[in-house]
Every structure is written in C-alpha cells, then in structure tokens.
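Q: Can I see a sequence and its folded structure?
A: Here is a first one.
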Amino acid sequence: MAGYNHLFIPGPTNIPEQVRQAMNLPMEDMRSPRYPELTLPLFADVKKVFKNHNGRVFIYPSSGTGAWEAAMTNVLSPGDRVLMSRFGQFSHLWVDMAERLGFEVDCLDMEWGTGVPVELYAERLVADKAHKIKAVFVTHNETATGVTSDVAAVRAALDACGHPALLFVDGVSSIGSIDFRQDEWGVDCAVSGSQKGFMLPAGLGFLSVSQKALDAAKTARHMRCYFSFEDMIKTNDTGYFPYTPPTQLLRGLRAALDLIFEEGLENIFARHHHLANGVRAAVSAWGLKLCATEPKWHSDTVSAIRLPEGIDGVEVIKHAYRAYNTSLGSGLSKVAGKVFRIGHLGSLNEVMVLGALGAAELTLLDCGVKIEAGSGVAAAINQFRSAAATAAAKAA
C-alpha cells in the first residue's frame, strides 16, 4: 500500500527520527575506556525520569518482564507472602510470575475495567499484624483495559497502619508518560520498558530501586544470576555491564532522554492528558464506552474501547490493518474480541491522534458499527481547540 503503516498500539510506540538516527551507527567497543562517558550519565538521567533521588537504577537487556523478575528475585525470598491484584492481562502476568517464582500470592481478583482496590489492600494490611506480607504490588497502568491506578493511595494505606512491606510498581506503560514520583510515593521497586514512553524499540528493561530495596536485597535468599543486583552494581559503578549490553539501544536511550528533558516531564504528562481527552471525546461522540468503568480509572496512555454486541474486535483490528494500513491494539484475554485499543503515548501529537481516530472511524463503519461519519474526529478537534483556547487565555 502507498504511504506507511500507522502505528497506534500502546507499545512499541513511534520512534522519533532523532532516536532512530542515534541508533544508526557502527558497532562499538562496550569495554572501551570511553564507554562510561555514555553509560554513567544514562544511569543518572533515567533516575530523573523515575524521580528517584536516593536509590539507583538498573538497565537490563530485556523487556519490562525481565526487570520484574529482577525485582522479585533480588529483593524477596522464596515463600515470601505478597499482596497483588488482578484486573487485566498484564496484572495477571505479574501474578503468574510471582506464583511461578515460588512466592505465596494473596491475589485480589477485580472486575476488568477497574484498578487496584486500595480499600481492600488497606484491610489486608491492617489485618496483617504479624507483617507476613513482604511486598505490595501495584500495576500503575493496566495496558489491556486502559486503567490507571492510584499509587500514592497505596503508599498512604501502608503508612496509615505502619506496615513495613515493600511497594512494587509496574510502570511499563506509565513511567515517562503519566505522573510518577518514586521517592515521594515511597516506591521501592519500579519497572518500565524502553518501548513505551521512552520511545525506543523493545529490548531495555528499567528497574529503579529505593535504598530500602537495596538493603533488602543483601539478605534476600532467592536464586538469581543474569539479573543479580550484586553483579550489576559491581560493573555499573564503573560504567560497564556484567555481560554484553545492547550498545545501539543505549545510544538511542541517550537521544530519547535528551528529547524528554527538552520537553520537560510535566509538559509530557500534560500533553498525554490532552491527547487522551481528545480520544475520550471521540469515543463519547461515537456512542461507545471505554473498558474503564469510571473516569477515575481513565488512562492517559491507552484507551480500550468496548464494541457493540455482534461486532468482532478481532475482525476490526484485521480490517484496520488490511484496508487502511493502520495498527490498532487488540483486546487481550477476557476482553479479546470485545474491545479495540488506541495507544496514545510516546512521540505523538494532535494530528497523529486525529489520524488514528479517522482510521478507527473508517474501520468501525466498514464493520457495521452504527456511528456518524466524522463524529469522533470532529469531537476530538473541538476538544483540542477548546483546550488550546483555554490555555491561551490563562497565559494572556
């Protein structure tokens, strides 16, 4: 087909040209005397994205899943009790990993379309007088259902009852795109991946840890090798890695971080909220509903949109790709065939979002969904223009 593929899945996201060009270079010696000139500032700058001032970050050649395994196996011991909740495919995968790694998982199953049940967490923590729960897990942004949960509220629940459990956060589709404050929220292990808000190909797993987690790792008894904190610290402190690092991805990371700091994290968060509001306006104009059951759960990085009865989401995704060369996100697990997803994170602006909405409208109409042509795009345009006018009035 003429033109290029339009990528509107919630990751991997679009890669800025500056980042692509930064990775287009010959192979280099990852043990050269000059390599720490690249790596040491990277460690420091990734910490800034997590807003971690007192701990340290690890950059693994892996996906976010690898970084999750690193967090669990370095900081916890076999048989430790952990409190988790499951309300989407990715929160389910973290539960599955914890069980397979031999932890005692106390899992709260919630409705898909809701998020972390803070009140139920608080009840479990208050009842745990012996402090058997060693870690509490929060999926900050459930990518499968377009739901964002309140990390700060979970920290408040821990503090209210004086519980010493560690706080683990999956921020794969939130960190770098949605407000996240590791130190302020008392997060001990925060995980992200390169292919979302960091605007890179998949292949880097980021794990940002507190000093409390680093101290816990010194006595934790789980077996680990590839993901060992000890091995990483020993070599990272001098600017190197215990194994071959993905050199080109690290060059891309440098360029991506430069773009992030040039725009400013707070501006990035505001941009994502602005773009998400446009998508939500379109969904409302179509007469459809989000998978997120209430506005308090709405994600600023991905919208999962429920389809009417009788419309197969699998066919919607296929038709968008074949007819309009556009990649939309599919429904996963329990919502497979029931939703389609629009990813609105990373290197994205209003015109790109309008393109996603236009392709979605064409596809929905072709697949028999009763919407008015142009309604969603028009609603998004009005939302964007209204927000711009309000911002201009405030600045005046």
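Q: Show me another, different protein.
A: A second, unrelated one:
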Amino acid sequence: MGTAADPAFDKETLRRGLEGENPEILLSLYADDAEMRIVDQTTQPSHPKVLHGRDEIGRMLEDVYSRDMSHKLERCVIQGDEAAYSESCQYSDGVRVLSESMLSLRDGKIAEQTLVQAWDE
C-alpha cells in the first residue's frame, strides 16, 4: 500500500483506462520518462519495438484505442515496485489478441513496461 511519499499503483485506474478504452486515463499511469518494450510476431525479442516517454507511448495508445475492438483486464498483480497484468482484446471481426505486461513502478507510475502480445491469424 502506498503512502504520500510512495503512492501505490492504481489498479482500478488501469481497469477504467483499458476497459473504458480511454488512452488519456492510461497515459496518466506512466512516468514522463517511461519506456515501453513491445514483443510480438513482428517485433521479436532480439529487436523489440521501444517507445520512449509519454509522447511516444501516448501516440501508440491513441492508435490502439481508435480501433474497433474491446479490451478486458484479466489479471493484475502488484507487489512493491513491480506489477504484472494480462489483457484480452477482441476486434469486431472476432480476431482475438492476448497481451501480458510486466511493469517496473516508480512513485506509483509505470517507469518501464515490457509487453508481449499474440493475436489470431
């Protein structure tokens, strides 16, 4: 549990942002200098896509949440300055996406995120 000097990561804000498809709410969870690494079938582990800072992360979130798809937070575990969550998504045509994220937290904000995702082909 966070204190005024060390605020806790807000799981309910994460849920509202993901499931409400609201990139502004999600972006509020990131530190200004956050870094996100994305690994999937096109950006494999040896060459992940890396986003630096809230501006780049925000542009990616805007793109994702402009798509015709639903999002659901499946699980979220928070322990100290680390968290992990699973997200399931479905496009309107039935294509499913599953992502797993590992987070490093600083002052209740996401400082680093590694996101691994897979989708139906």
